[in-house]
Amino acid sequence: MENSRQQLKKTVKKHIPKDWLCDLRIAYRILMEAVNDIKRTGIINVVIITTMAAILTIFGLLFRFTLSLSTFASELGNVLEISVYLKSGTSTSIAKDRIKEIKHVHTVTLKTKEDSWSSLKQELGLHDIENPLPDTLRVKVDKPENINSVFNQIKSIQGVEDLGYAKELAKKMQVATHVVNTTMIFVIIISAALTITIINNTIQLVIQSRKEEIEIMRLMGVSNWYIKTPLVMQGAFYGFVSSVIAVIPLSWIQIPLQNMHKFFLIPMPVYAQNIVIITLLIIGTTFGAIGSLLSIKKHLQV
Fold first, then answer.
1. Cα–Cα distance between 256 and 36 in angstroms, integer?
2. Least packed by Cβ within 10 Å: which of 74, 85, 162, 198?
3. pTM higher than 0.90
4. Structural domain boundaries in the chain
5. Side by side, which strands form the sheet with 136-141?
6. Are residues 120 and 133 in contact, defined by beta-carbon separation less than 8 angstroms?
7. Cβ atoms within 10 A of the Cβ of 178, count?
8. Nearest-angstrom CA–CA distance, 202 and 209
9. Annotation: CATH topology of 81-165
10. pLDDT digit string (tens) for 109-165?
11. DSSP strand pairing (82-86 vs 136-141)
């Protein structure tokens, strides 16, 4: 029976001519309802927006630092390499080709024992001494976290006498990256929970203040979306304005970050500032709207 009614409604709607002027008026009235709801909330608006802006500011600053730290880790990973020392008489070309076949290996560079010895003699002023150095392959991996796996696979290759890399540096990079990523996830969860809770409580107050008005609209047959939409827009408004305010502190740390990148000769991440700003606006607005929807579902039976 219910399916038949739904089908009948769809059939009737298809034959009703579109009145774009009427739709425009409805949209305008919904917008004005949202504006009036914000006005009714009064001074609480300032408290809500300030609190949300503080939460989003913490998230934005941490996100921006994370992007720079990721760039540092990536650049250090490019410098980090495994030195592979070959046994005397080992074919360097064969060893090089076998290492290239290993997954996650980015580049393999040969430094012959003659080149190494020539450089060492110039540095130390050595003469008339037989060359004791082996041929060396310098291996770079695609990501720092893969260096240990590649290292273990190279050890099993025939002709490899010894190998090594800056193990402590690689570990510290992995730990730093893991800590920052975990912190980011934690901050996102906390930001979402706090934002949604704040919006939820605010919309609940609005619903209570308009309880009789909403009940009258329902008795008059006003559609649910007409009642819900202004409240969702109010939550989205709080989130958007808070995000805009949270963007301001980002400009304060931009110059110090640029100076830090210049000092270490590491390029700034491309479009980092724009990425953070867009992310803040999307997250703030989305969390605000979600908070409203949850409040409507909980406190408004429409």
1. 43
2. 162
3. no
4. 20-75+172-299, 81-165
5. 105-111, 136-141, 82-86, 160-164
6. yes
7. 11
8. 11
9. Alpha-Beta Plaits (3.30.70)
10. 888 877 776 776 676 666 667 767 788 888 888 777 787 888 888 888 888 888 877
11. antiparallel
